[in-house]
């Protein structure tokens, strides 16, 4: 799958969900690990929480990625405008769904880890990693 031309230097991926506490933070952590040269990432939410879900931090530590220093951020027009690719993690809460603000975006439809047991959060983490790796590979091949 070809995304763009060869001049992708300085391109940013924006991962969004409602609270920016779990899925989008996990995706940001994985993309930092797998990002092709010249690509950066940020995550944000339409209603960010004060802190990242501690279970998300724990399951990422299990795979050697520390997201404990990342902070939930509010989705802004500037973040949307400055991002080359926008990925909605999935909207379980339609009234606050950030996808309505994104315009052209990918929707991954990933289950929210909030309030889930660690075993389920690990499954969600693994699903996000698979999708991020696929995205990074497609970007590298383009």
TrEMBL record:
Question: Where does the Phosphotyrosine protein phosphatase I domain start and stop, copy by copy?
Answer: 11-138
EC numbers: 1.20.4.1
GO molecular function terms listed in the Swiss-Prot or TrEMBL record: arsenate reductase (glutaredoxin) activity
Keyword list, A-Z:
Arsenical resistance, Oxidoreductase
The record ties this protein, via SUPFAM superfamilies, to:
Phosphotyrosine protein phosphatases I
Entry-linked Gene3D superfamilies: 3.40.50.2300
Q: Which GO terms describe its biological process?
A: response to arsenic-containing substance
The record's annotation in Pfam families points to:
LMWPc
Q: Provide the top EC class.
A: oxidoreductase
Q: Where is the signal peptide?
A: none
Full protein name: Arsenate reductase
């Amino acid at each position: 799958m070809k995304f763009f031309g060869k001049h992708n230097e300085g391109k940013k991926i924006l991962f969004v969900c409602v609270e920016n506490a779990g899925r989008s933070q996990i995706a940001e952590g994985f993309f930092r690990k797998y990002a092709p040269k010249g690509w950066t990432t940020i995550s944000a939410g339409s209603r960010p929480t004060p802190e990242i879900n501690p279970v998300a931090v724990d399951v990422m530590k299990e795979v050697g990625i520390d997201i404990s220093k990342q902070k939930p951020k509010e989705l802004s027009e500037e973040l949307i405008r400055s991002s080359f690719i926008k990925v909605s993690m999935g909207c379980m809460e339609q009234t606050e769904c950030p996808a309505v603000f994104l315009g052209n975006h990918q929707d991954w439809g990933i289950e929210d880890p909030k309030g889930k047991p660690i075993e389920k959060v690990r499954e969600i983490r693994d699903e996000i990693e698979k999708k991020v790796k696929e995205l990074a590979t497609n970007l590298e091949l383009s």
